[in-house]
Amino acid sequence: MASTVKDAIRRGRKTVEDVVEGGLDTVETVVEAGLNTVDAVVGKGRQTVESAVSLGRRTVEHAILGRTTMQAAVLHGREDVRIEQVPIPKAETGELVVRVGAALTCGTDLKVFRRGYHARMIVPPALFGHEMAGTVVEAGDGVTDYAPGDRVVALNSAPCGKCYFCLHDQENLCDDLLFNNGAYAEFIRIPERIVSKNTFVVPENVPLEHAALTEPLACAVHGFEDSRPRKGDIIAVIGGGPLGLMMLHVAALAGYETIAVVKHDGQVEAARQLGATHVVQSSSIRKAIQETRALTPRDRGVDIAIEAVGVPEAWQEAVELVRKGGTVNFFGGCAKNTHVTLDTNRIHYSDITLRATFHHTPAICRKALALIASGRFQASAFITGHAHLYELNRVFEKLMNRSTESEIKTAIVP
Ligand SMILES: [Zn+2]
Ligand SMILES: [Zn+2]
């Protein structure tokens, strides 16, 4: 073994990284293999190894991999994502650099892929992807809660903690939400604010790809709690996409009678597996309303209807599903400049509560991770595929064509 390392280096694999990728995994091994000191290793051209190791601030692993570039998905425009070599981020004060263990595809990313930008979050060329969990490889000065080697889930955003909304327990509406993207990459930088407010250690028993569900699940948990369910309520969830199914699962786990209102066969299966008491499958809104109401005593309607599709027709449908005094949650965000027409008499004389939950708060994110860690949440049911970073384009094309309606989320592994 020893001679192979020397030989490897002599033969022109000049960097430690090359040697290490050849099958040896620590600086020590390399040194033992015939290079007497770390300095000698560094002498081969890896100045960063010396600084990293001698300062003891970074992991040996990171030091060895102390290459300067990584593979990352870069969004250049509409349906134009390229896997490129980009600089590995560095952790400044208060920041972390995390090696991505798994990044999950999400409807938001699909929209970004299709449109080529995101008004609030992404202007190309840009790194993207936002649901991920991984292992800390570098902790910047001042970081005390996390150290290299820690498995963490870092959320896609964090509130400022100072604005009117943050000070009124509505951090999800923060005037200055800081977003972070770049999960479809080998490494991702986590900004200080997200490190301090919205990063959590992943319990040992939780696979990273399950922990990566924390973000979407937090949205679902928030929407569910915000609908203020009461014991014995019947809850209908319109939509069999990832968030609709999560919402349904959360309600079922909380012990409520649930009705899933979905369109596709694959969604019927998934809804059943995730605990739906009843499933209404119909491509006609009229029929879906009838059938859903028929499942409630004297057709009076459900106590809570949660819309998780994000189209105006479904918003209107949700209003038709609830009983007098019921609650509607417009949980699915519709496209810009869309409007709905509501029957004012029905809203007023039936005393219907309208809510529209958006995003999540740090407290809710913590709850979502706890639910995943509890083992009750069927995390693996939401991850229906795995793909390498290289395959990202193909994955999105597939999601766009909806060739597989039963796909929920794909775990992208760098
Ligand atoms: Zn998402
Ligand atoms: Zn704020």
What does it look like?
The N terminus is likely disordered. α10 packs across α11, α10 crosses α16 and α13 runs parallel beside α14. β15, α15 and β16 form a beta-alpha-beta unit. The protein has 18 helices and 18 strands. The two termini are 28 Å apart. It has 414 residues and is an alpha/beta fold. Strands 3, 5, 6, 9, 10, 17 and 18 form a 7-stranded mixed sheet that branches. The structure holds zinc ion (2 copies). One zinc ion (ZN) binds next to α10.
Q: Considering DSSP H and I runs of 4 or more, what fraction of the residues is helical?
A: 25-40%
Proportion in β-strands:
15-25%
What small molecules does the structure contain? zinc ion
Please state the average pLDDT score.
87
Question: Strands, helices and their partners?
Answer:
Elements: H1 2-10, H2 16-21, H3 27-32, H4 38-43, H5 47-55, H6 60-64, E1 69-77, E2 80-87, E3 96-104, H7 107-115, E4 126-127, E5 131-139, E6 151-154, E7 157-158, E8 178-179, E9 187-190, H8 192-197, E10 199-201, H9 208-211, H10 214-226, E11 234-238, H11 242-253, E12 257-262, H12 265-273, E13 278-281, H13 285-294, E14 302-307, H14 312-321, E15 322-330, H15 344-349, E16 353-355, H16 362-373, H17 379-382, E17 383-388, H18 392-401, E18 409-413
Parallel strand pairs: 11-12, 11-14, 12-13, 14-15, 15-16, 17-18
Antiparallel strand pairs: 1-2, 1-4, 3-5, 3-9, 3-18, 5-6, 6-10, 7-8
Helix pairs in contact: 10-11, 10-16, 13-14
Bound molecules: zinc ion (2 copies).
